[in-house]
Design brief:
Two copies of one chain form a homodimer. With 185 residues, chain A is an alpha/beta fold. Chain A has six helices and six strands.
């Protein structure tokens, strides 16, 4: 219910979250970069469970939000697949043994936010973390390439064809039973 | 036993580790940056358990190595406090509830390696990660400040005085019993 109220003017005085409101903080600066998106927001995050800033809300004002995260973390508290999907976000979940351990975001294909930070409430409120923001074209290009490569690698049609051929991979189908649907980007 | 053989010429043909040898990889590029240190190497890492590249070995050739990591991860397999200390590294361990979740390194106070990467063998061999290397002075200054601030914050003399006054904090003393000693930097 909170989504981006932290930054969105006017400040939501009744917001029950424990983050600072009306203050300039690292969190609000990060949110400002996310909210600067006008066309696309590509998130690639190891864990994503912070309902207070779920970037997918930007989808509501016409930004294409794509989220790639680890399947193991999909059902942790706060992830809210349904809310993200209803807001228009497209999600892909890595389901290979190797973790997608990135914590980056590409805004409008021209700004990168890369960090040590998982997008969880603990990380924002408790940990010591660092966040780098850059528009340096060569760096941005690297992150876009990585995102696109992973997006292709975790395209569910690859898994589905694997499952059809090997008949021993119930993971994807379990995901479908729980309401996880796959979308082309 | 392996330390930096991966990069150090000539390549150690008998090295039993599973990392590529004699190849240009992300790992060897990272190692090259670490080995470029001539005066200091300041590591601030959430987890550090990769004996294959333990940077403290650089201390053997006159580089001052300072490592700040989380106390909870000190005794995981591969950390090797003793080996690091014998190589001359100075270690500090955060023991507050909040995690130091950084994964960065400052080389000679003029180059920063910041990443999504914990310094574990799993991270290097299995995960999808990103590593940023920069000499941009403003960025380097930020990381140096953060390192120095944390180094001061986790100065054990602060904990010890806390313990003396409150008499209910056995954590530090347990650490001492296990051979964890504190050094000024």
């Amino acid at each position: 219910q909170l989504t981006l109220a932290v930054l969105y003017p006017p400040p939501c005085r009744s917001c029950p979250c424990s983050l600072p409101h009306g203050l300039e903080t690292s969190f609000t600066r990060l949110m400002r970069h996310l909210l600067s998106a006008t066309s696309s927001l590509d998130l690639c995050v190891f864990a994503f469970s912070n309902q207070k800033h779920r970037a997918a809300a930007t989808a509501e004002w016409g930004v294409a939000v794509s989220i790639l995260t680890n399947k193991n973390y999909v059902f942790i508290s706060g992830f809210q697949i349904g809310a993200l999907r209803r807001a228009g976000a497209v999600l892909l979940f890595s389901s290979l043994p190797a973790y997608v351990h990135h914590k980056f975001c590409v805004v409008d294909s021209q700004l990168v936010i890369a960090s040590s930070l998982n997008w969880t409430i603990t990380a924002f409120q408790s940990n010591r973390e660092n966040v780098l923001v850059t528009e340096e074209p060569d760096l941005v290009r690297c992150f876009i390439q990585e995102f696109e490569q992973l997006w292709e690698a975790y395209d569910p049609s690859r898994y589905l064809s694997m499952c059809i051929s090997c008949h021993d991979c119930p993971r994807i189908f379990r995901g479908q039973n729980k309401g996880t649907r796959w979308h082309s980007r």
